[in-house]
Write a structure and sequence with these properties.
Number of strands: 7
Shape: globular
CATH topology: Alpha-D-Glucose-1,6-Bisphosphate, Chain A, domain 4
CATH architecture: 2-Layer Sandwich
Strand order of the largest sheet: 1-7-6-5-4-3-2
Strand content: 35-45%
Radius of gyration: 16 Å
Helix content: 25-40%
Length: 166
């Protein structure tokens, strides 16, 4: 079995772990930072093993859809899920902008408390992927930070705002 390419994103937030967790599990907060520069509409968010997160991202009159199924939920330290591009009926399909992008990504997000900060680590690994999907993913890993960076900047601002309001 060949070793799969893995994308790793790690960020440290000046916020308690429970609050960082909440930004991933509260639909109102998640919609504010996930999918920067687009309108994010969360149709369903049921954070439990077997639960679904159905997400629509609207941009310029078009929509992109994602279906995420939670595999493991260990509050407030770990989320494991299968993230997939879908059509508007939430059926897993090829990504319309990158047809060879993996249809499903095994996604693990951990939240580790370090002093008064939280280290959030996200990993993406192609799940049950074809050779073409694995090759596409390996070639795109270096650019994945660009998309996540904008969301992480918004998340950082959101965490600061939530702590000021508390």
């Amino acid at each position: 079995m060949r070793e799969l390419p893995t994308y790793v994103l790690e960020r440290t937030f000046k916020a308690p772990r429970e609050l960082v967790w909440k930004t991933w599990t509260d639909p109102e907060l998640l919609a504010r930072w996930y999918g920067p520069n687009v309108e994010t509409v969360i149709h369903e968010l049921n954070v439990r093993p077997g639960g679904l997160w159905l997400n629509e991202m609207k941009m310029g009159g078009n929509s992109g859809y994602q279906r995420t199924e939670y595999v493991e939920v260990d509050e407030p330290s770990k989320l494991v899920c299968l993230m997939a591009s879908t059509n508007d009926k939430w059926e897993v399909t090829a990504n319309p902008m990158m047809p060879d992008w993996p249809r499903v990504l095994l996604t693990t997000v951990t939240f580790e408390e370090v002093g008064n900060e939280t280290v959030m680590k996200l990993t993406w690994v192609p799940h049950e992927a074809t050779d073409a999907e694995i090759t596409c993913f390996a070639g795109a890993i270096s650019g994945a930070d660009k998309g996540w960076a904008a969301g992480m900047a918004i998340l950082e601002e959101l965490l600061a705002e939530l702590q000021q309001a508390a």
